[in-house]
Amino acid sequence: MDLTTYDVTDAPYAKPGDRLELIGPGHDADAMAVEAGTNGYEILTSLGRRYSRVYTGK
Predict the structure, then answer these.
(1) Residue 12 lies in a domain
(2) Is the full-model pTM beyond 0.70?
(3) Could you tell me the residue range of the domain that residue 34 belongs to?
(4) Are 15 and 8 a contacting pair, CB within 8 Å?
């Protein structure tokens, strides 16, 4: 089981039940990797099979 906590203090319109997009058009895997101190490949390959993926674009 995974458990992650996100601080939504700076997101005044966030409410219970809203979705949180971690990787998407406004925040790609490389941006997430920089924040995590790794690289985009590591972010994408460590997701596992339990997560939903939607491939769009290129």
Answers:
(1) no
(2) no
(3) 20-58
(4) no
- Domain membership of residue 8 (yes or no) is no
Q: What is the pLDDT of residues 24-34, one digit of tens each?
A: 888 899 999 99
Please name the residue that has the structure tokens 């939607």: 54
Please give the tally of structural domains in the chain.
1
CA nearest to 6, candidates 43, 40, 35, 38? 35
Kindly give the residue spans of alpha helices, DSSP state H, lying in the chain.
Answer: 29-36, 40-45
Q: How far apart are CA 22 and CA 27, in angstroms?
A: 7
In a domain, 56, yes or no: yes
